[in-house]
Amino acid sequence: MDAHSLVPEEHYIREQPYYEAVGDEVAIFEAAYKNRLPVLLKGPTGCGKTRFMEYMAWRLKRPLITVSCHDDLTASDLVGRFLVKGGETVWVDGPLTRAVRVGGICYLDEIVEARKDTMVVIHPLADDRRALPMEKLGQLLEASSDFCLAISYNPGYQSVLKDLKQSTRQRFVAMEFDYPSPELERKIIANEAKVDPALAEKLVKFAQLTRNLKGSGLEEGASTRLLVHAGKLIASGVEPVSACRAAVAQALTDDADMLAAVEELSSSIF
Length: 270
Ligand code: ADP
Known about the structure:
By secondary structure, the chain is of the alpha/beta class. It folds into two domains: about 10-175, Rossmann fold, CATH 3.40.50.300; about 180-270. The chain is built from eleven helices and nine strands. The protein has helices spanning about 25-35, 50-60, 75-80, 95-100, 120-125, 165-170, 180-195, 195-210, 225-235, 240-250, 255-270, and strands spanning about 40, 65-70, 80-85, 90-95, 105-110, 130-135, 140, 150-155, 175. The strands form three sheets. It has a five-stranded parallel sheet, with helices on both faces. It holds the Pfam family AAA_5. It comes from Sulfuritortus calidifontis.
């Protein structure tokens, strides 16, 4: 995210995002927010975590500042840095600092991807201190009472190197996300991809078959996101087996045998 573009007004979500609640996640998040507790969303990619955050930001009327973490992301990327502008050195807030100042919701997506030094700034924000250490400015910035820290991670990708430490995870109220129930997933696909319920049902059946392959060749099965993509292609006139190949199979794997296996599944349904 470009630090210069972080104007809080632009981060308000004006229209209600379409979100189908799966369980009591809305009530839990609201209670956590009320009590100034940070939140951890666990779950596979494409199962609705980002959409949920957009919905909650809209509901709570707070700006949402999302950072997709990657393995080069440092504490300075989150907190900010000095930049030279027109011969002058100026301080530019990073996205986390902006959220802390303006009382926004900062959503750090796939937190385990980030460099380990990011934890130094996250820990004091995620406990009673609710303060952001700004090392370069020699300041400890107290978070606005409206500030909320939310992070996500996918336990499925867990490895010794990329796991969330107990010292981190035990600071958060944690919620597990998973693919929605078949009925709900049908409804979501029909709504998002504008396809009829019968087609949505077939896509969900196909997804379930691919999810059974998890662990025996596939790292993950088809997510709700991929089904929405396939549905959109089909709604635009692409033949279903081709749509499933492009939007789902090729997105899941490069392995020729697995591609053939996934294609067999879609051919058996469509
Ligand atoms: P994640 O952040 O978990 O990777 P997203 O929130 O981006 O996943 O979800 C991917 C897509 O799946 C969304 O853009 C939306 O189309 C759909 N989706 C998944 N779950 C839901 C839900 N509960 N309500 C509405 N849409 C959903």
